[in-house]
Amino acid sequence: MRDEEKDQRVRPGRPPLALGALSGLLAGFTALAVAELVAAAVRPQSSPVVAVGGASIDATPAAVKDWAIRHFGTDDKLVLQLGILAVLAVLALVLGGLAVRFRRVGAAGVLLFGAVGAAAAAGRPDSTGLTDTLPSVVGALAGALLLFVLTGRLTEVRRSPVSEQEVTPEKAGAVLSAPGGLDRRGFVLTAASAAAASAVVGGVGRSLNASRGQDAVASRNEVLLPRPGSPAQPVPRRAALRVPGISPFVTPNNSFYRVDTALVVPKVDATTWRLRVHGQGVRCDATYSFGDLLRRELIERDITLTCVSNEVGGPYVGNARWIGVRLADLLAECGVKPPSRGGPADQLVARSVDGMTIGSPVEDVMDGRDALLALGMNGEPLPFAHGFPVRMVVPGLYGFVSACKWIEDIELTTFDAYDPYWVKRGWARRAPIKTESRIDTPKPFARPNAGTVMIAGVAWAQHRGIDKVEVRIDDSPWQEARLAAEDTRDTWRQWSFPWPATQGGHTLTVRATDRTGAVQTGERTRTIPDGASGWHSVVVTVG
Q1: pTM of the full predicted structure?
Q2: Strand stretches in 353-443, DSSP E
């Protein structure tokens, strides 16, 4: 045969490799779609992407989590899920290409990833048992079957009775339509049908998952928060400065930061919710319903919360008006005493419906501060993303040692006996909020005009209060800023400083002093293990 003819021969073993990769991608899509539908019948948290994502979060080193929060903010969970889908897509392409030559191996690979998803679902702290493995198992079976069928149509061309030497351009059409040849039409029909069916199944699954929380939504809509027996004092008129660009004194619910590990926000039905209190020093185990808490005397307080992942100058701090039950009173009714009064427990471990555990010092919770089992936020029932129906709020402590959302269990124990979720991952057992301040305006790299430029921001030292804020321009001496009126020592405080700006580049720096006389340190530390420290500064260019 001439060289020209050899180059023009049809090589039936090569084209199916790309189609095999496509088959793998379709199989992966089908597996996830079917799993989504099954998860709707089990529970949304049993979805393989959610289960594997949760396991990935748990296994991720604290420094990496901190990096993700710093760079992606509250979108870190979305980035994680997209990353998981991207990895699955690549693996599906590889398995599809492999299945062209080894059909059973490709299908077995899909089943293996189903097993990984099932193991992740069964191993979650909030797992309900073997039923949580069903979405991964059933989805993997569907994906493996589809891959086996699709690649079966492709691999037939390699078994064609017509040898490669016999297949010339003139005979290619005969080969492709021969009984043993590539069933192109059958492949296209099967692939298209599978893609369409998977899209429908996945869409139905997502719709059903979204509707699963309707009972919880209805229960929240029916909540009517009673007037508190101890209402918060009106916010002083001069607590909120009228400076463009400064953070509002009260953070709206839809703007309040959210940092947690829940890939799916739990939607808990308030009518079936229960809180159990038990452990060392508890006279008798107690269980409370949402109605029980509503019937107790409620208090209303303005409290600023801060996340330990907040970098110097970061956004993870917010102020809200909370309404709830005094946690100390409820614990005292159960017989709990703080260690200073002879109580055997020094740690309160709060457990969430999603399996999160958060440990708080019993002494701090019962020392007279307004530690709450919060039911409402800024005049409405808690939003689902912020813990509905009930969450903990403890002034002066970082959220990872106090702010358990979707709480369902309180255990009294000791720090020696139990390490909660974050402590196991290298964070501190005790973490009072550090004295910090932030420049809100001007923004970094702003280009204001020469003249009077208002520098303004917020400072916080919950449960101690802010006494003074100072500003430094470049390397000049510190100058005292004007403080807004104080609401309470548990809230942040706004400040401002009129700066006679001159042309050129300048570095603006801020520091605060709390009511104990402690001056905010300029030493920079990471957020791990007990919160970042250092002075916040911004660079601007005055025109």
Answers
A1: 0.84
A2: 357-361, 372-377, 380-381, 391-393, 407-413, 436-441
